[in-house]
Structure formats: structure tokens, C-alpha cells
TrEMBL record:
GO molecular function, one term: hydrolase activity
Source species taxonomy: Bacteria, Bacillati, Actinomycetota, Actinomycetes, Kitasatosporales
Domain of life: Bacteria
Transmembrane stretches, start-end: 6-26, 62-85, 97-117, 137-157, 169-191, 197-215
Record-given protein name: HD-GYP domain-containing protein
Coiled coil spans: none
Hydrolase listed as a keyword: yes
InterPro entries the record matches: Cyclic_di-GMP/3'3'-cGAMP_PDE, HD/PDEase_dom, HD_domain, HD_GYP_dom, HDIG_dom
Provenance organism: Streptomyces kebangsaanensis
Length: 435
């Protein structure tokens, strides 16, 4: 949102005007200002803690306001916490205004729906289970407004095609917002009970524990990504001729794994395996990787040690799991003619058979200075020709199905302006391409 197009600014202005319109019929004399102030302070504090702990949006206080207060009053609750906080990205002022207006509209809509369905009376009477239906409808309204407005921003600022701007936003956000809505409902019921607002705030204690757990998970995953990124960058620096190859192999490995029906955690591990399959090149002398002339048998044997070097480098990284065996065995062949151990058939780990197909596919569909890239169809024909001897036919079929369904759109994050490959390919690359 750094360079905001004029149409996006107009969109934000319309959302702000809509939010101001929601605030206009505020009944000043009948508004419980102490409740508005308390909930606004709670939301601001929770938002600050959530941002510091990387825990994402936190809405229980906002939904509790929608269940307790008139719509115009409830719409005031998110404003101090958003307008006074740092946005973190430029333009900060516009981002704060946008987010405040978006949340004000969402809370207002939730409060309107909740009130229209008699929710506030049900909350005041602690009328279970009838209190659940209005609360559920309010949560749906809250989620719909947020996702509808977010989709508009994606389309106008990030230039996402309209057909892709909204699909998936609602379904992805409904479950977490539903959990926050349940916590907000518990807060509202306790608020109206004889125990009062203090008891209502105790509902946030278990949510704080969930923040902490989520934050630890988020930090761990961030550390994983940083580790992977550092290793890949090191390989790219040493063997710049194949820059981007590792990421594309990771993408193809992920496509195969998904087509095989693997769970999300295993798909992620297979992506890591593809990205890091050549990390062992860090242990190969640079002069061999960049040698222009033919390799001697001894030099070829040294290069063929790179899977073992890679396995040794990542052996202590526990989160890689079966990716480690994929790194070690991705040059094995079903007929036993591969390296480093000459394994055959089912002796080769499944993860390594996935990466072997992904590696060969990208090698064939990438342009090199000594040959043009093959079309995807031609590469698949070659994989199918070698299936059963070099590659696992099941993996080849899975890749073909995935490409037929999604196409091949490799996303490479190598920096623009990176050095171009040399005009003559290194001998090590030519040898690997022939294999």
C-alpha cells in the first residue's frame, strides 16, 4: 500500500464516509460511556500485546461491544486502539484510517444484526441457548464486512484480479473470528451477570495463553524459514548458474505432494526438501562447480558426494524431518543406477522419489545457456519415458495431473539484477543435466 493508486484512495474515502455515517446517530445522553471507554481500553491493550507477540488480529473485545452496546457506540470501540497505534508500514496515516473505518463498519454491522434479532435482551437474561443464534448471525456479519472490504483493497491496491480478490477470504477468516465471537459472547454474558465487568475480563486470560502458544509457533516457523532462506542463498552465491532452481524444485515437489493427498505438514516438509536438495553443493569445491571443461572421473565422484554433504549439513535440523532423507537420496534411480548408494525401487524413500521428479522437471523446463528450455509437455513426455527405470511412475503421474490442473507458474524470489549465468555452462551442471 506504499504507492496507493487514486482509485484506492477513493475507495478508502468511501469506507471512511460510511463509518462516519454509522457514528452520526450516536445517542450521547443514553450511551454508557464508561463501558465504551473500558472496552476500547481493553481492545487497545489486547491489540498492542497481539502485535508484539505476532498473534494476529484479536476481536473478542470488539464482538463483546457489538453484543452489549448500541451500534453507533459499539463502532467507537476500535477507534482509539487503531488510530493511536503504529501501522508498521507506509503510508501509516492512511493505513490507520483505513483499518479504523473497516473495523468500525464491521462492529456496527454486527451490533445491528445482533440487536435486530433480540440478542441484547437474550444476553441480559443469559438466555441459553437462544443467545447463540443472534451472536452467530452477528459474527457472520462482522466477518462478511471485513472480508468484503479486504477484497476491495486487494483488487485496487495489490491489483489482484477481481475473480481472485474475494474467493477464500471469508472461509479462511470465519473459523478464527468464530472463536473470537464465542469469547466475546462469554464476556458479554458475564458482563450482564451479577459478577459484572471484572468477571467478563477474566475470559481473556485463556485467550492470552492461546496468544502465547500461537506466538511461539509463529516464531518457530519464522526461524525455520530464515534457516531455509540462508541455506538457499548460500547455494545460490556459490552456484549462481542454477539460481532459482531450488525454489522451483520446492514448488514442484509441493504440487506432487498435494496431488498425492499428503497432509499440509508433510507437504511443507516436501517443499523444504525440494528447496534444499542441492544444499550439499556448499561442500563441493567451487572450481568444480564452475569448471568449463569436461570433468575427470575423480572430479565427477567428488560432485556426486553432494547429497551426502547435504545430508550431513542438515542432519541436526529436526524440523526438516523426512526432507533429510530426500536430500540424501534424490539422485537414486529405481533401477539402482543412481547415487550415492545405488538404492532400488521401494528402498528409495518416497520423499526422495518426489524430489527426483521435481528436480528433473525443472532442469528440463529451465533455459540454460547451452540449450533452450523444453516445453512442459515435452518434459512430461521425457519423464514418462524414463518412468519405471529412473523415476517413480506414481510421482510422474501426480506431477502431470497437478500441472494439468494448475499449470506451471514458477515463483522465484531471486533478487532482480542478480548476476546472469556464464555463457558456457559449468561442467558440473552439464554432467547433472545429462544424468
Amino acid at each position: 500500500m506504499e504507492a496507493v493508486p487514486p482509485r484506492a484512495r477513493a475507495y478508502v474515502a468511501c469506507v471512511v464516509l460510511g463509518a462516519l455515517t454509522c457514528l452520526l446517530p450516536l445517542p450521547v445522553t443514553r450511551t454508557p460511556w464508561w463501558a465504551v471507554a473500558l472496552l476500547a481500553a481493553v481492545y487497545a491493550g489486547c491489540r498492542h500485546l497481539a502485535r508484539r507477540n505476532l498473534a494476529g488480529p484479536f476481536y473478542p473485545a470488539l464482538l463483546a461491544a457489538a453484543f452489549l452496546l448500541p451500534p453507533a457506540a459499539a463502532a467507537l470501540v476500535p477507534l482509539p486502539g487503531v488510530l493511536l497505534a503504529r501501522a508498521g508500514q507506509r503510508p501509516e496515516g492512511l493505513r490507520r484510517i483505513w483499518r479504523a473505518a473497516q473495523l468500525a463498519l464491521a462492529v456496527w454491522a454486527a451490533a445491528r444484526v445482533h440487536g435486530a434479532l433480540g440478542g441484547r435482551d437474550a444476553v441480559a437474561a443469559s438466555d441459553f441457548p437462544y443467545v447463540l443464534a443472534p451472536a452467530g448471525a452477528a459474527v457472520l456479519a462482522f466477518c462478511l464486512v471485513l472480508t468484503a472490504l479486504d477484497g476491495g483493497i486487494h483488487a485496487l491496491v495489490e491489483r489482484v484480479p477481481v475473480r481472485r480478490a474475494w474467493p477464500g477470504l471469508f472461509t479462511r477468516s470465519l473459523a478464527p473470528i468464530g472463536v473470537h465471537g464465542l469469547a466475546g459472547l462469554m464476556m458479554a454474558v458475564l458482563w450482564r451477570s451479577p459478577y459484572g465487568p471484572v468477571a467478563a475480563l477474566l475470559v481473556l486470560l485463556p485467550m492470552c495463553v492461546s496468544w502465547w502458544v500461537y506466538a511461539q509457533y509463529h516464531r518457530e516457523r519464522a526461524a525455520h524459514r530464515a534457516t531455509i532462506r540462508a541455506l538457499v542463498q548460500a547455494v545460490d552465491i556459490k552456484d549462481g548458474y542454477t539460481r532459482g532452481h531450488s525454489e522451483r524444485v520446492g514448488q514442484a515437489s509441493m504440487m506432487i505432494a498435494r496431488e498425492l493427498g499428503m497432509d499440509d505438514e508433510r507437504v511443507e516438509v516436501l517443499r523444504f526438501a525440494g528447496i534444499l536438495h542441492d544444499v550439499g553443493k556448499l561442500g563441493v569445491p567451487t572450481r568444480l562447480l564452475r569448471k568449463d571443461g569436461p570433468l575427470t572421473p575423480e572430479e565427477r565422484r567428488v560432485i556426486e558426494l553432494h547429497p551426502e554433504y547435504g545430508h550431513e549439513m542438515v542432519r541436526g535440523i529436526s524440523f526438516l524431518g523426512e526432507a533429510r532423507s530426500a536430500i540424501l537420496h534424490h539422485h537414486e534411480r529405481l533401477d539402482g543406477s543412481g547415487y550415492p548408494y545405488g538404492l532400488t525401487g521401494s528402498q528409495i524413500p518416497e520423499s526422495a522419489r518426489v524430489v527426483a521428479v521435481a528436480d528433473a522437471f525443472d532442469a528440463m523446463t529451465s533455459t540454460r545457456s547451452y540449450r533452450r528450455a523444453r516445453p512442459v509437455g515435452a518434459a512430461l513426455e521425457e519423464l514418462e519415458r524414463c518412468a519405471g527405470a529412473q523415476f517413480d511412475p506414481r510421482m510422474v503421474t501426480a506431477l502431470a495431473r497437478a500441472l494439468d490442473r494448475h499449470g506451471w507458474h514458477p515463483a522465484v524470489t531471486a533478487e532482480d539484477g542478480a548476476p546472469l549465468p556464464p555463457p558456457v555452462p559449468p561442467a558440473a551442471d552439464r554432467e547433472e543435466a545429462r544424468r
